[in-house]
Every structure is written in structure tokens, then in C-alpha cells.
Request: fold
Amino acid sequence: MMSYEVLAGRKIVLGVSGSIAAYKAVAVASALTQAGATVDVIMTPEATELVRPLSFQAITHRPVHTDMFSLLAETEIGHVTLGHHADAVLIAPATANTLAKLALGLADDMLATTVLASTAPLVIAPAMDADMYDNPAVQQNVRILRERGATIIEPGHGRMASGLVGQGRLAEPSEIVDTLRVVLGRTGDLVGWRIVVTAGGTREAIDPVRFISNHSSGKMGYAIAEAARDRGASVVLITAPSALTPPHGVETRHITSAAELHDAVVAAIADADLLVMAAAVADYRPARVADQKIKKQDAALVLELEPTVDILAATADLASARLVRVGFAAESEDLVAHARSKLDRKRLDMIVGNDITAEGSGFGSDNNAVVMLDRFGGRRDLPAIPKREVAHELLHEVLRIRRARDEVTPGT
Reply:
């Protein structure tokens, strides 16, 4: 299996300027390095007063650059070489002074000069006191940089080091890294695709405080949404209640019940290229929902259940010719037989079956062992691997199925 991590092997220039939030850039450098990127850190002189260069060097295992006139080799000028070789330039944190320099095109330090020398995508995460970020001059510089193509990661709202409360806190390292993934994914193999992913376990109300649900955590669906985002797709994630944080760069729509999920899916697939139904949808719901909390009694509580709508089956007749439809089958026995039956009944392009009784795989786990069956009779088995890797392998199979289907039915 190949690696689909969009940051793997990428050359990232990480600029750190003199904000009190500079210490958070160490976590950014660490996350980028762990993802397989080669990270070259450039620090402004002011940043070195707040964080020692050694902190970054220990994380990235590469020298930290502070001097504009230093040479990377006997004939290589540092700012030119770093700028030319970069796949992306990320500045986190970016002070008001740094924003002004970039907007004006100044080149009086290593960082500003490297930005001018680079044609790579530029991602900027500002951080400063609240009143400073709201200043019209700063806001004008932000607009200028956006108009020139820079991606601005808006700072968060909260309490500042000064004691003020407002907008100006550096975005969290996870958001910064995910934004960089989105930017680098713009050249991925799913650019131009609109993908709808469902996730989590639906809840069917019994009364105002109780419901019927299942053990789905939503991890598989969220992983698919993130993987598709990283490969350049426009992603809509329709999620049942989950403890997970919605992925950055993904349009997230929240639902609760199977009926709500049905309506959301039908609306979302009108112009979609791919539907992945990773949500664990309740098969039954109470026929009647009590208006008030049902009080505990000595007698048994008997609930009459009725089937919920079969969402995947319903989409078969609504789908456009180009839509690829993928379902999931969580089974406790006869995995392949049950998955194949579901594939045929619901007229799917592919189904992903997983054995929920397997140790270290399935609901709530970070790993999944699955079997992928497609409409052409193909089968692919994956061992227990991280769900993010399963997600990328699923998308790889979708691309193969789309090509095979187009060959059978030209023009779709």
C-alpha cells in the first residue's frame, strides 16, 4: 500500500516571527515532521528572544535559519534556495509587523526575503493582541495578502497575554497543519470531485431523554472526509452526534435520526461525484415517541419498533449517472456473504465489510480490517491498519471503479 499523506516528502518553510505565541510553532514543526515533511525553520531576530532556535532544530533535525546572509552551501544563498525549493511557505505566528512587511513587499530579514523569492503557496497564521488585529491597517494588510493568493488562518477569540479578550490568539497547531494539508491537496487526484460522507451512529428517540443507538464513534467516516479533503475534493460530512471534532476544511452538517440523515443525503448528492455511507444507521426506531419522560415502573417496558428508511436503497434511483455509491457492512458473521448480498440489493458500486467481533478493529477503534467488494466482482482484503489509511485505500478503489465504469458506459 502506498502512502497518501499529503505532507510526506514535502519541503515546508516554517517562518516564526516575534509573537508571544511563538512557542506554539514548536508543536507545528513537530506535527509537520511526524507527517513526513522536511521542515526548514526561519526565525526573525525577535522570535529568537522568545524561543530558542535549538528547540526547532531538535524537533526537525535541521539547522534553523536566522541570518539573511548565511549560505546553505558555498554557492547557495539561503533565502533564495529555501524559497525556490519550498512546496509551501507557512508563517506561524505572523505578527502585525510581519504582515505589513509582506503586504509592502519589504525584504529586510531572512523570512520576508524568502517569501519574496518563493512562488510556493503561502499560508499565514496571524497572532497579536486583540486591538492590534482589529486595527484598520492590519485588516487592510490581511486583505491585500488574501487578494495576492495567500491563505490566512484567522486567529481565535479569547483571552490574550495582555489580559484583553478578543480576536488575536494563534490558531491551534492542528488547524494550522490541516490548513496546510488543504492547500497542498489542491493538486491532488480528487480535485474537482464533490464527495458526500456520512459518519457516526444515528439516534432514534424513545422519549425526550432516551434513545436507541449503536456503538459507532464516527472515526471511519471522519477519516474518509479528511482523506478526501487532503486529495483536493470538496467534501460534505453529514454526521450523527459524535465526540470527534469536525475536520477543518470540510463542510459539516449535523443530523440526529435516520430520517434526518435520509433528507440530508438526498439533498447533498444532487451534484455529488461520490457518496460514502460510513454512518451506522439504526435499522429500527420506536413507532411512537413519548412526549414526556417515561417513568420507571416495576413492569417491563415494551417498545414497538418500526423499520427506518433504507437510505442507500433510496439513493439508487435518485443518483446521477456519475455518482459512485459506497456502503459499509458491519457484520458479526459470514462477513463476505452478507456484504456481497448488501452490495447487490442496494445496487452499490462498492461495499466495505468489517467484522465487528475482530479484536482491535471496528467500532471505536483507531484501526480497521476490511474487505472491499465491487460491482465488477473484485475483492480486496486489508489487514488491521489505521482508519486514515483505510480511507485512502477506499478512495483509491473508488478511482479505479470510476475508470472501469466509464469504460463500460462511455460518457458517464
Summary: The longest strand covers residues 324-331. Residues 188-408 form a domain with the Rossmann fold fold (CATH 3.40.50.10300). The chain is about 35% helix and 25% strand.
